[in-house]
Structure formats: structure tokens, C-alpha cells
Amino acid sequence: MDNLKAASQFLSYCCNLSGEAFSLSTNMWKTKTYNKGEKYNKSGRICRTASFILNGYFRTYKVGIDGEQRNVFIHPPGQTLVSFVSFVQQIPCDYDIEAITEAEVISISYDDLQELYKSSIEWEKVGRLFAEYAYKLVEDRFLGYYDLSPEERYLKLINEAPEIFNVVALKDISSFLGIEFQSLCRIRKRLSKRGS
Q1: How many CA atoms lie within 13 A of 120 on its CB side?
Q2: Whole-model pTM?
């Protein structure tokens, strides 16, 4: 699929943006590839682009006071990628976003988006609707896993995104699920015995 078409379809889906309104932005989008381990945005830096993941996976993580990296999100293809508060308010971000596989995104800059907001009522609505979409993703992530046992969190992820286990390291998945790596290995072993 053409990269611009992927961005257009996403904005049509999440923000009801028409093809005509999207055409105002066609020369503003830039495609970029990331190597595994390359940062999309670093803690302490201002996020200057909002992106759509064309392929590959990213993780959002924070470093705890103990120096451990804790994954907050794993972003699959077809999802947005942005340090939202940093991007909207143009303030430094307090977490990192990093490619955990080879990846490719299509991005639009903060400045270009501001110009689009001024150019069209439809684009102005995109800002609000995109914020609602981003909020829902965060709420689903935290409230969707909050009261589940470690085994239930693992099973929920298998049901929602089974392909993730083929491309993302188990240590990153365990951090994302808030389960100690050894505990996740025991859960997987126990469930595989049940299934056989």
C-alpha cells in the first residue's frame, strides 16, 4: 500500500478526514526507516513529529530510579507513534520511544500540522479527534490490564496481538505486561502443558 494512502486511511478512520482535506497535506509527509534500537524520541527532547507505523514495532519505555527500563507500550504496525503531551505542548518528553525491530513510519511535523489546522475546519477537528483517539489507547492499555492477574494479562495479549510474540523479545513483552521475566516463562510453560 502506498505510504500516503496508509496515512490517509488512518486519518479517515480515526478522525473522519476526507480525501480532499488530506490532499492539503500530501507534500508534508515524510517517510523514515528505523534500525532496531534506534530512537524515535528521547527522554528530555521535544517530540517534533506525529507518525503512523507502516511496518515494524516500537516500544515506549521509562527508566526507573533503579535503572531498569520498563515498557509502557508496544506499538505495532498500523498504529500511531507520538510522544503526545510533548508534541502537543512542545515540551520535553520524559520517556523514550525506540524501534524494537526494523521499522518504517510516515510522519508529519508539528509546524506543518499547525499550518493545516489554520487552513481547514476539517483539519482543525483532526487535532481534537486525534487527542480522543490517543486518550482511548492509553485508557485501554492501563484500565484494560489493571485488574488482571499476570496470567490473564498474558492471555489477553495473545488474544489481541498474537503476532507480537513472533517479532518482539520476550523480555520486552514481560516488561510491557508488568510481569517478571521468569514468571512469564513459568506461565508460558504451565499453559503449554495444559494445551498439550
Answers
A1: 17
A2: 0.85
